[in-house]
Amino acid sequence: MKLIYKNLGKIMTKCLMIQGTASNAGKSLIVAALCRIYTKRGYKVAPFKSQNMSLNSYTTKENKEIAIAQVLQAKAANIEPTVDMNPILLKPKGESCSQVIIQGEAVGNKDFFRKYDKTKATQKDIDNNLMDDEDYRIIAKEAVIDSLNNLKKDYDIIIMEGAGSPAEINLREGDLANMGAAEIADANVLLVGDIDKGGVFASIAGTFLLLDDADRLRFKGVIINKFRGKQELLCSGIERLEEIIEVPVLGIVPYAENLQLPEEDSASLKEHDWTKEFKSNDDHIIIGVIKLPKIANFTDIDPFDTEEDVEVRMIEVHNYQEKIKDVDALILPGTRNSTEDIMELEKSGFANKIRELSNESKIPIIGICGGYQILGNKIYDKDHKESKLDEVEGLGLLDIESEFIREGKIVKQSLATIEIDESPDDNGMFHEIFSKINGEEVTGYELHEGTTNLISANPLFKIEKGIGNNDNDQFDGAYSENVFGTYFHGIFNNYNIRREFLNALRKSKGLEERIGEDPFETSVENSLEKLANIVEEALDMDYIDKLIFDE
Predict the structure, then answer these.
(1) Measured distance CA(132)–CA(54) in Å, rounded
(2) pLDDT digits (tens, 9 = 90+) for 102-112
(3) Measured over all CA atoms, what is the biggest interatomic distance in the chain, rounded to whole angstroms?
(4) Rounded distance, CA 520 to CA 321, Å?
(5) Do 278 and 286 meet the contact criterion of CB atoms below 8 Å apart?
(6) Going by C-beta distance under 8 Å and a sequence separation of 6 or more, which residues neighbour residue 148?
């Protein structure tokens, strides 16, 4: 019989933490599933990940920056994502350095492979805004405690997510991602092991072996995740594992096929790897996405995955020849360094191929955020925020120029209306597409340090809320003939834009146009429901109920 606790009245907020034997063990989705399960039971539930390292981030309504994984988990709980759900976000910048975002705002950079004392700072350290080890620990821990307390004021249950593995014993001192966070929250912990990678029993037993006694006592159960096959084959192994670790295995979660849910790290890019065999482009739209060396916020392409007749193809910068020839459109996604990425495109010869596709083949080319900057004539970087060069040449496909002159980063949720000149100088593909939905609203979120000035390109969106191209002109984006760019992440989450763009491509290939319900929104909600049902059926939920509610 299920334990029904919600009839007991208001409860003190309870915390349960999900940790993993390694990255990509499935922690994020288990957290999302538990958020949905307990939300459907009538509780107010919030996700929480104290420290996340990800290049896929999102702007909350507070205009703060958090990891995209907590946005999905909040959606599973049917609540608005807030900065308190991810108080520490680390965005890798390369060379072992990460940008540190505390409670949604960038506060400096941290080299986690080097012990650093600000009293011994070099001029390079100062120029790089490098954070002192002790300062970071103090600020980060205060943020974790503060955000956790903020959530406790409004929610009955907090489902926490760890990062990496708790068995990284070299990082235990000062840890805030796994056992340190569990200790702050006084949370029971469940350990998730990924059987699909192999060695799941060893990874689970090894994790327990490496924990100290106090940390080991917090672990109350184990989840075996991503299993394919007959569960009876695992019985003897599970019995022996439980003898070794002295906690129960709470269930075996089967590998969930065809979930259409955003991924937070670059492992998801392999789903679209250029070596993958794709369907014929005779009855499919093939969208090429350039896998820029510094690619970021690649979840912008996720909505295309839900379109039945669309294939998304990631194309390597230095190995593009075979997979570029039959694309129907090309997207330059976000990047954490547009100046370095355009130089890599030039070095590989890919830049000239993109120009050829645009100018000669008239393939539609789209740039998002850093990809938008790359489409222009020049990128100026006189303060050397991204490179050692004062300026670099862009692709020259949009008559725009971008520069890095801001003191800080724009972090905004944005709203705009499509504003297309009814009698422009050019009547290209994107003028025709956007004219069909002229005046309609679009939403997105902005995460950029650059500004962009339009020379002769047409502005695309009239800003209602947000910043867009720069602080002065109240417009975002630009278009010209078969090219457009925008600073709006999530641009293709807007079904009106995605629908008209794809229908134009369908029409050009003699395929049937499609209308109706947005398959992306439908698929995310359906996938969350499917995931929650799979997890609830697989796990011993009575046992988990007791962990959460019993003192």
Answers:
(1) 21
(2) 999 999 888 88
(3) 76
(4) 31
(5) yes
(6) 15, 48, 50, 84, 158, 184, 185
- DSSP codes, 4-63: --GGG-S---EEEEEEESSTTSSHHHHHHHHHHHHHHTT--EEEE-SEEE-S-EEE-TTS
Hunting for tokens 């740039």 — which residue is that? 367
Catalytically active residues are 369, 489
The pLDDT of residue 8 is 39
Nearest to 384 by CA among 446, 334, 449: 449
For residue 240, the surrounding DSSP H or E stretch is helix 235-245
Instruction: Determine which of 305-314, 325-334, 371-380, 426-435 has the lowest per-residue pLDDT on average.
Output: 426-435
Closest C-alpha to 182, from 172, 194, 169: 172
pLDDT tens digits, residue range 389-402? 899 999 999 999 99
Question: Is residue 306 pLDDT above 70, yes or no?
Answer: yes
Residue 372 contacts by C-beta under 8 Å, 6 or more apart in sequence? Answer: 332, 398, 402, 452, 477, 478, 485, 486, 487
| HSE-up (13 A, CA, CB side) for residue 77 | 29
Pairing of strands 188-194, 219-227: parallel
Helix (H, G, I), strand (E, B) or coil at 105: strand
Res. 190 pLDDT band, cuts 50 70 90:
very high
Q: What is the β-pairing status of strands 391-393 and 378-380?
A: antiparallel
Q: Are 155 and 45 in contact (CB under 8 A)?
A: yes
Please give the structure tokens belonging to residue 295.
Answer: 């690619």
Between CA 225 and CA 193 the distance in angstroms is: 6
Cβ(103)–Cβ(148) below 8 Å: no
CB atoms within 10 A of CB 230: 7
Q: Please enumerate in sequence order all residues whose Cβ is within 8 A of that of 508, keeping only pairs 6 or more positions apart, or say none.
A: 328
Nearest-angstrom CA–CA distance, 251 and 245? 15
Distance of CA 494 to the CA centre of its chain: 17
Residue of 257, 253, 285, 292 lying closest to 271 (CA atoms): 257
